[in-house]
Amino acid sequence: MALAHRGGWLIDDQGVRSTDLENTAVAFQHAVDLGYTYLETDVHATADGVLTAFHDKTLDRTTDRTGAIASLPYSEVSRARVAGKEPIPLLEDLLGSWPEVRFNIDLKTDRAVLPLLRVLRRTDAWDRVCVGSFDQNRLNRARRLYGPRVATSCGPVEVARLRLSSLSPVLRPIAGRTPVCAQIPLSQGGFPVLSRDMIRTAHRLGIQVHVWTVNEPAVMERLLDAGVDGIITDNTVGLRDLLVRRGRWNRELPETSKNG
Q: Which InterPro entries match (predicted)?
C-alpha cells in the first residue's frame, strides 16, 4: 500500500521538485494523477467548527497569514494561501473530489473529533477513511463516537503494547486487536520502533504495518523486503517507480477489516 503524505512532493516535467504545497488540492491531485488511491492528511477545526485539511496548529509556517486555526473563523482561514498560492482545503471537499480514493486522517486536536463525525455523516465516507491520532485518549473518544464502521490505526499506547508484545509470545495478549493497522516511524527518540519481530507479531494479530515518513527508495526497498504492508511518503514518484519495478503498483485494493 502506497500512501501520499499530505499529497506528497510535486514534480514537474523537468523534474523540478516542489515541497511547499502540502495538504493542498493541487498536491492531492498530483498524487491521484500518479495513480495513488490512498492519501494521508491532517485535520484541524476552525473556531466555528469547520474541518480543514491542515497539519499545523497555526497558519504561520505554510501560509501567507498568521494565527491559530482554532481561534479563527473559517471566513478568515479561507483567505489564507499555502505558499501564497493555494487555499486550505476542507476535508469534505477532498472526500467529494476523489470518491474512489481512501483517506488516512490524523486528528490533530480534540476539537476536530466531532466535526469529523459530522463530515462522515454528510459524505457517507465511513468505509473510505482510516482515523489515527498521536493522542490515545482522543483516538479512544473518536472510536466511541464513530463506531465500528470507521477503521482506525494504533494510538501511541497501542504501538507501545505491540512493540512489547513482539519481544516474547508470552507478552502477545497485551497487544489489542481493535486497530486495523499500526502506522509507525522507523524509530522514535533514538529508540527503534520497527522490527521484523514486530511486523510478524502485528500480522499474527491481523494488523497491517505502515511506516512513515519514508522518502529514500533504498529504505523503501528494505522495508518492503521486511514485509511491511504500507509506506507513507512525500516522494510519491520514487515509491511509485519502485512498486512498478516490483510488480506491486495498482494491484486490486486490499480488503480492510473494520474495528471489532
A: GP_PDE_dom, PLC-like_Pdiesterase_TIM-brl
Domain boundaries of the chain, sorted by first residue: 2-245
Give the burial class of 169: count Cβ atoms within 10 A of its Cβ; 0-12 exposed, 13-18 middle, 19 or more buried.
Answer: exposed
Which pLDDT tens digit goes with each residue over 19-52?
A: 999 999 999 999 999 999 999 999 999 999 999 9
User: Rounded to an integer, what is the distance from CA 57 to the centroid of its chain?
Assistant: 17
DSSP-derived 3-state class of residue 27: helix
Q: Is the pTM of the predicted complex or chain greater than 0.70?
A: yes
SS3 88: coil
CA distance 43 to 195: 30
Written as one letter, the residue type at 87 is P
The CATH architecture of the domain made up of 2-245 is Alpha-Beta Barrel (3.20)
- What angle, rounded to 10 degrees, do the helices at 156-165 and 196-204 form? 100
Instruction: Kindly tell me the burial class for residue 16, based on how many C-beta atoms sit within 10 Å of its own C-beta (0-12, 13-18, 19 or more).
Output: exposed
In sequence order, the β-bridge partners of residue 129 are: 103
